[in-house]
Amino acid sequence: TVLSVIALWWFWPRLGRSTLTRLKQISKVLLIAFLALSVSVSLLPFAHISDQVVILDVGQGDAVLLRSGIHTILVDTGPDPGILERQLRKQRVDTIEALILTHDHDDHIGGVKALSRYGPVRWVLCAEGAQSSPQIRQIASDLDAELREVKLGDEIILDKLSIHVWGPLDKVIDPGANESCLVLYVTTSAGKESRRFQFLTRLGDRSARIESSSLLMSGDAEALSVKRAFMAQQRETHSVDVIKLGHHGSKESINEGLLELLDPQYVVISVGKNNAYGHPAQSTLDLCDGREVHVLRTDQSGTITVDLESQTMIDP
């Protein structure tokens, strides 16, 4: 250090004016770059997230993140709090504004205790009539969240994402039945300004990229329920590029008629490796293969991200 000071003292008078000017300019550039980097790092937790649907790898269960801007909704929690928490950390989730529960089966609600670190969760949303489920009421109480029902025709806005409720068509009588599951159609609010999280009802790793602009998910709803939900929307034109198959790709989750009707490019299956149920069914895989529909599975690919903003899918 002493030698450095001596050297600086010795050479300083010998530096020309042009050299000093250049050194000052370089110092200013370096200072600006340092400040910009510091600000960027400090803002990382609040960085903009593109419009994404993230099918989390939670084993034999379902948990799906919906993300837009700085806002996040979770659809179902998977079966295990520890697994869900690890997945949320990997996705760098800071807060979750709402929890949507498609129904009250353990493989869809069992991981809810992990959300205590991501609150406050403002709303727990379920299908109309599903408030009769003791499990769903308990979850809302534990999270100190408002429990709200959504019904056919409702639209949930998450910044630039639009989440349309397509099913069930009727008020739920049995919250645990597969046909009582919420059927959700997710797309971007093209051409609309960014909006804060709100409700609009009809009253008011590895990587691969594919094109995608919309996704249909249905909890454990099976082919007949999904077909009825889609047919109820036929007064409007809808494309379904990606289906997240219901019931982990069981033989009841899809059939030839539904696959022909929806005509998706990709099918995503949330399923546990070597599960005891034999999911996904071979008949499901054969149907998709026969129609040249690409299949992505969480037991093989891990967490799968559909990027609706750039119209790509990322299979990490």
Description:
The strands form two sheets. The chain has a nine-stranded mixed beta sheet. Strands 10-7-8-9-12-13-14-15 form an eight-stranded mixed beta sheet. The two termini are 49 Å apart. By secondary structure, it is α/β, with parallel strands linked by helices. Mean pLDDT is 82; it is low at 2-11, 36-46 and 193-211. The protein has helices at residues 2-11, 17-42, 81-90, 106-109, 134-142, 223-231, 256-262, 282-290, 298-301; strands at 49-55, 64-69, 71-75, 98-100, 123-127, 146-150, 155-158, 161-167, 183-188, 198-200, 209-210, 214-217, 242-244, 266-269, 294-297, 304-307, 312-314. Helices cover 28% and strands 24% of the residues.
